[in-house]
């Protein structure tokens, strides 16, 4: 019976090549897209699962209380990790983990290169499991001058030499000896490093970090087996009060590592939003492909009515017929799945480039085949279920008497499926285009300072000593308008304080204040406008060492009146006088609210900012290299253009947009494939009607209009239903953006017209083909 059913299924495929092609192509495209998206979703959900007992690993966080609300922060004071491990036996292992520097100069055998180095404690490799290739992983961080490399970094630094025991020099001041080499960090790891040294060395270099008020490092812990994490977190909630400060409003806690990639420390959604979005898109596209199959299968029902009637007449049961049609559906789905794998393989490099991932189709992986088999079975059963039950329900007597027709019910169902397809396609496209407009708005909005034609140069300790001399020489260049230095890029500052006081301040009001450190030329370089007061004294900066400039947002917090010459008392027991108020600008990404900030003179510059005359970028870079090279010959220059760096802040959002656009296009293509198939079937069913209309004098344009009218009506209904859905969905999405566009209602009409034009073009060929057919051929048997 099974062999016979397979033969029948194969013959039906061959006999109806056009419909089979549409079904297979539609399913293959839908399944390929679903496979790629589920591959990405699976990768994001698998973060940090490769460690031993990952459910026992936690990130250490602490809450800071602002305005009566607890705010979770990952940054910790250095002594906290040691104290927790000492006070709580439930914490088996604990480690600091942080970057020492992103661009440290590493030297080996006269070869110099910049490297990013991170620090950790000896417990690091007892918490996290990165397979060791060389050296002893148990003791590799015990020596204060040790260095652990990944396989990739070892190859980059030492080539084919054995790195174990070799000594490198960091920033011309710190020798480190390689003690171990580990495998390259998996792409699904939230803990990443290429060079790792003992955290103890960082502590030695930065003794100020031992202060309980200095929050600069991350920490991780592994709890003992059987520990109740809720009970332990209740104990940690009292740690600061019991062991540091009875008046403290800080609270330590542990957060599961397995959730860290998907959620923020306060358990609010992070990457999980994108994961859910892409999972839903994968399901939507698969549903659209399944609807195509169901539509075409039920549309062709009358063609198989006699086969079903005969089978029922000779004793075939209802379950047997259902099995046959489900089997046929699975056969088509399996064929489609093979093409889907080929398509996924072909487009995986582009998908990886788009998503900045290194996903692979691992044919030896159980997870990969679970995705393939799962998608195939779900598609086959969902797509084949309704056609199977519908076809099996035919009345054999009516069929064999020739009085059977498909019925109004099946026509209504097909229309519903088409409408649902275009609801999904329309909703997806409107949402995507709205996100595009919002992202364009954010990237192009006025952030209150001018970042164009500015080069940012990383400053090391050697350049810091000569910073004023370098500034002076650069200013003599005809290509350069002005030069400034500071602690951060001006739109990306994450240096905060929360202990500021001023006259009349409510003691319960504890805002988070951002601290950019700048020099007197900052305001000219970035074209920052003043609301009142004056800038720092460029001729005598020392005279303003106890002065600050604040923004309008901060000024409104202090007073509705003039704030010039008012005093601010900081958390470090400094009294600072306000000498100026600048107009608000974004010192943090504009996906956040405007922050109150306090500008101070910079005594530890990390960046040099050079504003050049427009059109002279190349000459300016050459001038910078010449001058900086004179005072910093051993360190290659690291620089970037600020407008490029700013644009890169939205790179992740652009990747999401591109994926959504491609998904929308695929959804429309798959929907139109089904529409083309239905139009072909419709033309076949209405051949005689068209012949009669032509005989009665209908023109070709009238026939095409009649033919397209139904499809246009379905698109209109789908659009009307999708509009409120997308509006409310996007309003929820907009809640995360303090700066946003008004909802673009014009997109409703634009997307409707676009879908209408595409669908009309899709059915136009069949309309024209039917309208140009000789009516004699259609009516010769009547």
Automatic annotation (TrEMBL):
Source organism per UniProt: Marinifilum flexuosum
Entry keyword Transit peptide: no
Compartments where located: Cell membrane
Gene Ontology cellular component terms for the protein in this record: plasma membrane
Topology of this chain in the membrane: Multi-pass membrane protein
Coiled-coil region list: none
Protein name: ABC-type antimicrobial peptide transport system permease subunit
Annotated ABC3 transporter permease C-terminal domain residues: 280-396, 663-775
Ranges that cross the membrane: 21-41, 277-296, 330-348, 368-391, 416-437, 660-682, 703-725, 745-765
Keywords in alphabetical order: Cell membrane, Membrane, Transmembrane, Transmembrane helix
Lineage, opening ranks: Bacteria, Pseudomonadati, Bacteroidota, Bacteroidia, Marinilabiliales
Domain MacB-like periplasmic core as annotated: residue spans: 20-238, 436-585
InterPro entries in the record: ABC3_permease_C, MacB_PCD, Macrolide_Exporter_MacB
Domain of life: Bacteria
MF terms in GO: transmembrane transporter activity
């Amino acid at each position: 019976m099974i062999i016979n059913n397979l033969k029948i299924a194969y013959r039906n495929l061959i006999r109806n090549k056009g419909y089979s092609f549409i079904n297979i192509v539609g399913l293959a495209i839908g399944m390929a897209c679903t496979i790629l998206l589920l591959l990405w979703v699976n990768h994001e959900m698998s973060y940090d699962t490769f460690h031993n007992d990952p459910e026992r690993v936690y990130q250490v966080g602490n809450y800071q209380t602002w305005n009566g609300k607890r705010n979770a922060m990952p940054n910790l004071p250095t002594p906290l990790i040691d104290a927790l491990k000492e006070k709580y036996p439930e914490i088996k292992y604990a480690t600091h983990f942080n970057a020492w520097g992103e661009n440290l100069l590493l030297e080996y055998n006269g070869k110099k290169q910049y490297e990013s180095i991170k620090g950790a404690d000896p417990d690091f490799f007892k918490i996290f499991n990165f397979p060791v290739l060389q050296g002893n992983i148990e003791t590799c961080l015990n020596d204060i001058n040790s260095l652990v490399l990944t396989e990739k970094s070892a190859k980059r630094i030492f080539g084919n030499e054995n790195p174990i025991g070799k000594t490198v020099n960091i920033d011309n001041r710190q020798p480190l000896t390689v003690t171990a080499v580990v495998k390259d960090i998996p792409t699904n790891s939230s803990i990443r490093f290429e060079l790792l040294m003992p955290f103890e060395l960082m502590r030695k270099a930065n003794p100020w970090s031992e202060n309980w008020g200095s929050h600069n490092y991350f920490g991780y812990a592994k709890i003992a087996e059987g520990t109740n994490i809720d009970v332990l977190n209740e104990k940690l909630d009292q740690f600061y009060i019991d062991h540091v400060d009875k008046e403290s409003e800080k609270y330590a806690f542990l957060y599961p590592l397995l959730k860290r990639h998907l959620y923020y420390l306060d358990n609010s959604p992070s990457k999980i939003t994108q994961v859910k979005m892409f999972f839903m898109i994968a399901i939507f596209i698969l549903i659209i492909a399944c609807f195509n199959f169901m539509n075409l299968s039920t549309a062709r029902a009358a063609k198989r009515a006699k086969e079903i009637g005969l089978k029922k007449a000779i004793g075939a049961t209802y379950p047997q017929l259902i099995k046959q049609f489900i089997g046929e559906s699975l056969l088509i789905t399996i064929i489609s799945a093979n093409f889907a794998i080929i398509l996924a393989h072909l487009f995986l490099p582009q998908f990886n480039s788009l998503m900045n991932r290194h996903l692979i189709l691992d044919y030896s992986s159980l997870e990969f085949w679970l995705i393939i088999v799962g998608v195939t079975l779900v598609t086959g059963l969902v797509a084949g279920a309704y056609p199977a039950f519908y076809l099996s329900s035919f009345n054999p007597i009516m069929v064999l008497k020739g009085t059977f027709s498909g019925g109004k019910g099946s026509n209504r169902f097909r229309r519903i499926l088409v409408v649902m397809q275009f609801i999904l396609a329309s909703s997806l496209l409107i949402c995507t285009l709205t996100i595009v407009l919002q992202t364009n708005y954010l990237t192009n909005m006025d952030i209150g300072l001018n970042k164009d034609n500015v080069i940012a140069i990383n400053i090391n300790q050697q350049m810091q000593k000569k910073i004023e001399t370098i500034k002076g020489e650069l200013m003599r260049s005809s290509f350069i308008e002005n030069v400034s230095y500071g602690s951060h890029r001006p739109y990306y500052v994450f240096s905060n304080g929360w202990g500021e006081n001023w006259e009349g301040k409510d003691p319960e009001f504890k805002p988070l204040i951002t601290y950019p450190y700048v020099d007197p030329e900052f305001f000219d370089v970035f074209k920052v406008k003043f609301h009142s007061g004056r800038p720092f004294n460029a001729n005598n900066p020392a005279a303003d060492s106890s002065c600050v400039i604040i923004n309008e947002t901060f000024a409104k917090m202090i007073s509705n009146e003039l704030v010039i010459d008012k005093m601010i008392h900081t958390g470090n027991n400094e009294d600072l006088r306000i000498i100026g108020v600048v107009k608000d600008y974004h010192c943090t990404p504009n996906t956040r609210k405007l922050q109150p900030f306090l500008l101070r003179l910079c005594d530890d510059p990390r960046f040099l900012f050079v504003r050049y005359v427009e059109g002279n970028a190349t000459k300016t870079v050459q001038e910078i290299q010449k001058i900086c090279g004179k005072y910093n010959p051993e360190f290659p220059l690291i620089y970037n253009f600020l407008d490029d760096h700013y644009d890169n802040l939205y790179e992740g959002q652009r990747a999401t947009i591109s994926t959504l656009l491609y998904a929308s296009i695929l959804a429309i293509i798959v929907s139109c494939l089904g529409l083309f198939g239905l139009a072909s079937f419709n033309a076949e069913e209405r051949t005689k009607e068209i012949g009669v209309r032509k005989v009665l004098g209908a023109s070709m344009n009238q026939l095409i209009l009649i033919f397209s009218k139904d499809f246009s009506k379905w698109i209109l209904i789908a659009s009307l239903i999708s509009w409120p859905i997308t509006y409310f969905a996007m309003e929820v999405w907009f809640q995360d953006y303090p700066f946003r566009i008004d909802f673009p209602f014009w997109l409703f009409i634009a997307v409707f017209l676009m879908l209408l034009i595409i669908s009309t073009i899709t059915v136009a060929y069949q309309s024209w083909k039917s309208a140009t057919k000789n009516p004699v051929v259609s009516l010769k048997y009547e």
